[in-house]
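G., the chain you wanted modeled:
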Amino acid sequence: MHVYANRHTGDSLACRHYHLGVAATFPSGSSQSQLHCGHAGPTGAGVCVGNPLPTEFCTDFLETCGADSAWPDATTCAFNVDFMVTGTPTASMEDTYGCRLAFLRAAKGFVAGTSNRSTSCARASYSGADGWCQGPVTAQSFCQQFVDTCGTADYGWDSVASCTWWNRRMATALGCKASLTTSKPPVASTLLFALCRSAPK
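Predicted structure as tokens:
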């Protein structure tokens, strides 16, 4: 059984495994069986969609790419990923979880030991590679995640635009240095680092 088989949502095998198991508890062809079979299918039917948990990403990364000095185990990896701006699951220059997820998915499509897999794994790693998943996180990405996660009530930012403006103003006030926008802290992001990473470049 998959180690995260109790995961109910997210575009992952664990989510599909769970809903397939639930579907099997109902008579074949029943409405409940069909409902959960849809969740277990390729589209996820609105339930098995979105980013997998960091723990699941990290398990997949270690199984596909192997450990590296920054991510020797799934626990350390998940701790780091939890501090990343989510972004979108597409290949990009931004230092986001979404960028790494896109390259991990690409790596899984290549045969183990090939240069294509090695290149994709390097880009999906903590450090990124070749400029991919290494660039500054934009204020837009941070603020979109904030609004999606926290909403707009009672936090002083009533929109992505107002959040973006604040982040740029704060980064300017802090006097963000180039070193903070091009390298990471040893373990996880600090507030200063996050603000500087979201400053306009």
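The mean pLDDT is 77.

Shout if anything looks off.
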